[in-house]
Task: structure prediction
Amino acid sequence: MMKDIGQQPLKARRQAHELWWRGFWDRSWIHVTAGAGSSVGSGSGSVAEKEAGPSADDTFIVSRAYALQRFINACAGRGRYPIKFNGSLFTVPYQGRPGDADYRQWGPGYWWQNTRLPYISACASGDFDLMQPLFRMYGQDLMPFFRYRTRLYLKHDGVYIPECIYFWGDVFSETYGWEPFEQRSDKLQASGWHKWEWVSGPELVFMMLDRYEYTLEEAFLREMALPAAHEVLTFFDQHYPTDANGTMVMHPAQAVETWWNCTNPMPELAGLHAVTERLLALPERLTTAEQRTFWSRLRKKLPALPTREVDGKTVLAPAAKFEDKKNIENPELYAVFPFRLIAIGRPNIEWGREALERRLDKGDFGWRQDDIFMAYLGLSDAAKQNISSRAKNVNKESRFPAFWGPNYDWIPDQDHGGVLLKTLQAMLMQTDGKKIYLFPAWPKDWNAEFKLHAPYQTVIRATIEKGKVTRLDVQPESRRKDVVLFPEK
Result:
């Protein structure tokens, strides 16, 4: 391929290059400006504020951060393999490792919880081509290996996708353990950090269903999304037993890396509820009776989303039973995001708001998803505060104002930027099936002009000024009836 490109005239290559970037920037954009009563920059002396000038306000910094992070994603997203969360293409050396220009904290492998974050905004941006390396590696190239490993280790069908793998599929040796496979009675990994963490499968399928819903590409649904869904759901169906009432009991289990001793963890349960709901909502002509029977049977035996009572209020819980806290995630809020079961337009949104209020760990940097949770729960002021802080949190030794980190990962931290992209999109627009919710978490003192993509091959262009929508273009026009403006009239 490089040889073929090299044989093209330089002028032609330059024209193709410019054409691609013009098309990319025309796909979508978000421009935010200060409205009446909006505060200007705090003058804290951050790199972003100094570069923007003394009169710059948070909206400029947020807009710039959004555009530059999309640029980084576009640079790294067109290769053979998924974007590396810990440095992307632009990783910087570590002073403690002289000569190692490709240093990456957390190593050269892929961690699913981190790898997904640069991709969660791609559908709304219209960047469907950038998603292909992620889906190709996890959903196609490695699927036979995942299936073989599940059968070898657990003696049943389906696939589980380990959290930590190299691009050829092996689990990290330091995670799996060094004891020879033949001598192990427990064939799963030795490390407890991800031993029973299997939310990666439902998340992968959910993202594939997003892509289908946005593009309506039936070949993608038929050849990649539905086969992946079958393997992932088969794993859970065959792996966990049912109680006397026919309800699945997910144990042993854990809630991501945080709670190590769980029964019925929220992340996997929310994922299974969300995936089966969406699969059963597909047009019958695109599915088989056998598939729908399997999805319905599995859905009927799923336990309800775990909740708990606190001060007389129902609150989302990390699991039905959860003990042994090891990390600082908030798995109870996976019902809000990524799985969007507790969100704008859905029942019981107060369960999510109460859970957010009572979360044990907080933050607006790195892989922390608080900003996204706030947006999906309609908390505009909180989302505004978090995303503003996130956009200003640049690496002090880097001149480029979208080199985040190191945070939990490395420089530039793609999780930090990925959460920023999704948060700003969700503040402006959220979707559920055919419903399009506009400005569900938008602060009154921010103006915005945007072009974003929505499901069913829909493109939205809108402008909001001083809390009023001054422009709304919906293509195709037939989708306008599905738009709900906030605050609702």
The chain has 17 helices and 14 strands. Confidence is low (pLDDT under 50) at residues 40-55.
